[in-house]
Amino acid sequence: MAPDESLPEGNPSAGLNMLNPVQASPVVPLDQLTASLAPHVASWQHRYLLGLETLTAQEITTLLDVAQILKEATEGCRRKVPLLTGKTCANLFFENSTRTRNSFSLAAKRLGADTVEFGASGSSTAKGETFADTAKTIEAMGVDWVVTRHSTPGTPHLLARELKCCVLNAGDGPHEHPTQGLLDLLTIRQHRESIKGLTVALVGDIAHSRTARSNVWGLKKLGAHVIICGPPTLVSERWKELGFEVAHHLDEILPRCDVLNLLRIQFERQNARPFPSVHEYAALYAMNAKRMQLAKEDILIMAPGPINRGVEITPEVADGPHSVILEQVNNGIAVRMAALYLLSAADDRLRAAGRSHS
Amino acid sequence: MVAALLIENGTLVDPSQNLNRPGRLLCIDGQVVSLDPADGDLPPDVQRVDATGCLVAPGLVDLGVELREPGAEEDETIASGSEAALVGGYTSILATSNTSPVIDSYGAVEYVRQKAAQASGARVHVIACLSKGGKGEQMAELGLLTEAGAVVFSDAPKPVPSDALLKRALEYCRMLDRPVFDRPSVPELAAGGVMHDGKVALVLGLKGLPTEAEDLAVARDVRLAEATMGRLHVGPVSTMGAVDMFRRVKSRGVEVTASVCPHNLILDDSVMASYESRFKVHPPLRSPAHVEMLRHAIKDKTIDAIQSGHMPRSREKMMDDLDRSPFGLSSLETSLATAATALVRTGILDWLELFDRMSTRPAQIAGLDRAGSLLAGKDADIVIVDPNAGWKVDSSQFRSTCISTPLEGAELIGKVKATIVAGQVRYRAAG
After folding, report:
1. Most A CBs within 10 Å: which of B322, B324, B325, as the mutation test of the A interface?
2. Chain A residues close to B202, C-beta within 8 Å
3. H or E segment to which residue A108 belongs
4. Are B103 and B133 in contact (CB under 8 A)?
5. Is the N-terminal amide bond of A306 cis, ω within 30° of 0?
6. What is the per-residue pLDDT for A11?
7. Vertex B182, ends B135 and B297: CA angle to 5°?
């Protein structure tokens, strides 16, 4: 018995001590949990999660439903349920990340899986190896999932072709960040009966945002009206051709919005400043107390983080009653648990089918 | 002493004399001697080539092939590239100057010519640098390079960044009677781009190569050609804007020429959704509207010629992610069939027109007086093509060192059966 299992229920440190979760007396017995997940498992067929654009509304809903079940089964992502014991999740991050990487690690650990960490610095890519070769090497060590982040769009897609294990995209350049999109959807769903019919605005650096490129498809597929808002240098008119509303003046769209998702200005991806100054950007687009007066009374304020206080959001809004920013972080673990679980189940089935064919 | 060669039972297709009829062709000592010779005029030792069911046309001429030697022999060599050219039906190719070191000296031109002479592939003509070191600053020694045997001046695939340099070079080259080639791009607008900048790039999150990066360069190029009365070829081009520009200046009688690559006539940017580096080609695969307009610009001669765009890169270089993989493709062995599939099968061009765009016209543009024609006295550089044969692209069969192609697995029509250089059958298709 692990030492932390002897911790009494209700220990005030239990909620904070996220790395050593309480394992005793699960809320739901394991067989009951597995049974409640079974119908959802049957409707998921992929051993990779690369983006939301290529998923159906049903598949997205399945991910969200499983995330909700697992969140509750782990008492808000704080307890362990040994659904994936004996499996190993490799984090292969070629770009810096703290929150997403830790969130994936925690998700794996909450489900009883082991994790192994690879970073770009110190790894073989620094010695000239291609990322695909690095990934193959890690796969050969016997991992079940590769969670990957890379500055170039499409790298997880290449890995999905090259590797036989599960592949999860944790962000490929400005392309997609599907678990971020899912956690945003889950957060909205927890506050509203349905995503269908809601008006959701994504505000800010759309051009360089993988969060935006996952959110737009997830929201559209689930029936939301999506507004993409920001300066024209960051918001292409071509979004209209893809069925989205494009806006350049936040104050004009604000009264219509049920949800506002404030995207960070990604200075690190911009070769040339797409607006004259941060000062000017904040004046035009920062969500502040004054702008809150234009908003609906029950507006949800979201931000994928890390947030730049004073640029896209001011402290009184970030920390105010409409902000669900920290709930998003917690939901991140839930959707990542769901993704790991569903991919693994699909992989098990595909392998079993492969064996029975041969 | 080269034996006499009689190509018989085929259809002679020669744009230079508007010829498209069954006939036979006699070549002696590496030259075309006559059409339809009488049996009594045939030398007793004549070698006969049967072209039943095939077209007999002047060998293809390519306006710019990267051969990568010296300096990047892992990508291609003069020998492998000139051999791949034969498989594709090319009898003359122009080798680009962007080797390492670049081709900007008498010795470098001589090196390429000697290497080509030792190989037994297509004829290799040398494009020498327009600027010293290919740096885009000062003119290279264009007069001395002409004496060394260079036929064209260009820094391509790099564009000429300086307006003043291009203007000077166009003026200077008038006395040399050699053309200048520019590959149009404004580097500042194209920086970092990996694919056509459009709706697909927006969704895929990939950095775009905007059409205006090409359009602005084309606009500059054609204006300077007009102002200097210089001999300028611009290409390959890939945009509607470029076509529009050429239409306008050509209607004013400006003698600027343009070319396009086969891959830009058959594929559009939607294939990038697979994120495979074999689709990272240059000029980039554009949206369908551009493809459609390019096809018709080839028909009405707004665009004069089709060039392979062969940019070989080794397998290991193409195995990286899309940002780090270079632009590249192996196209010498697929160009004719790609163009035939895009243009002839669709009824836009007939074969006579296609050979004009791929042989006769490119030979004129490059100033190769003895190529691109089956007239008596021309070089006996000939391609024999089965116009109806369908085949599937399989890069593992390529003679080129580079096996990256956006057309892998594509079903094409038009198969090169034999390629003849200087009256010698240098390539014959198996089977």
Report:
1. B322
2. 236, 238-239, 242
3. helix A99-110
4. no
5. yes
6. 40
7. 160
Are the beta carbons of B117 and B145 closer than 8 angstroms? no
DSSP per-residue letters across B340-392: IIIIITTTSS-HHHHHIIIIIHHHHHHT-TTSS--STTSB--EEEEEEEEEEE
Q: What is the pLDDT of residues B116-175, one digit of tens each?
A: 999 999 999 999 999 999 999 999 999 999 999 999 999 999 999 999 999 999 999 999
* Residue range(s) of every CATH 3.40.50.1370 domain in chain A: 30-177+331-348, 179-267+274-327
Contacts of B319 in chain A (CB under 8 A): 130, 132
Q: Does A150 touch chain B (CB under 8 A)?
A: yes
Structure tokens at A28: 């739901």
CATH architecture of A30-177+331-348: 3-Layer(aba) Sandwich (3.40)
Q: Taking CB atoms and an 8 Å limit, are A175 and B206 in contact across chains?
A: yes
| Orientation of helix A178-191 relative to helix A99-110, angle to 10° | 70
pLDDT value at residue A127: 67
How far from A155 is each of A89, A201, B278, B279, B325, CA to CA, in Å? 18, 28, 14, 15, 12
Residues 6+ apart with CB under 8 A from B422: B2, B30, B379, B380, B381
Contact B60, B93 (CB under 8 A): no
pLDDT in the model for residue A305: 80
Question: Whose structure tokens read 């895929």?
Answer: B204
Q: Alpha-carbon distance B326 to A354, whole Å?
A: 37
**Helix/strand/coil for B297:** helix
Q: How far is residue A197's CA from residue B98's CA, in Å, rounded to a whole number?
A: 57
C-alpha count within 13 angstroms, C-beta hemisphere, residue B105: 8
For domain B57-366, which CATH number applies: 3.60.40.10, 2.60.40.420, 3.20.20.140, 3.20.20.370?
3.20.20.140
Check whether A14 has a pLDDT greater than 80. no
Contacts of A262 (CB under 8 A, 6+ apart): A203, A204, A287, A301, A302, A303, A307, A312, A313
Nearest alpha carbon to residue A59 among A69, A74, A49: A49
| Chain A residues close to B276, C-beta within 8 Å | 158
* Predicted TM-score of the model (pTM): 0.92
Taking the CA atoms of residue B237, residue B241, residue B243 and residue B245 in that order, the dihedral angle to the nearest 10 degrees is: -110
Q: Do B205 and A213 touch (CB under 8 A)?
A: yes
- The CATH number assigned to the domain with range A179-267+274-327 reads 3.40.50.1370
Distance from CA of A203 to the nearest CA of B (A): 17
Tens-place pLDDT, residues A295-319 = 999 999 999 988 889 899 999 999 9
Q: Which of A249, A255, A262, A251 is nearest to A309 (CA)?
A: A262
Instruction: Assess contact for A276 and A301: CB atoms under 8 A.
Output: no
A vs B: CB pairs below 8 A: 54
3-state secondary structure of A123: coil
- Write the DSSP symbol of residue A309: B
Q: Is the pLDDT of residue A21 over 70?
A: no
Binding site: which residues of A?
99-100, 127, 149, 177, 180, 210, 264, 305-306
Residue A232, classified by CB atoms within 10 Å of its CB into exposed (0-12), middle (13-18) or buried (19+), is exposed
Average pLDDT over residues A185-195: 96
Tell me if A91 sits within 8 A of A147, measured CB to CB. yes
Each domain of chain B, given as residue ranges in start order, spans 57-366
Check residues A309 and B378 and name the one with the higher pLDDT.
B378
Report helix, strand or coil for B123: strand
Burial class (CB in 10 A: 0-12, 13-18, 19+), A320: middle
Output the known binding site of A for carbamoyl phosphate: 99-100, 149, 177, 180, 305-306
Do B202 and A238 make contact, defined as CB atoms within 8 angstroms? yes
Q: Which of B209, B314, B346 is nearest to B272 (CA)?
A: B209
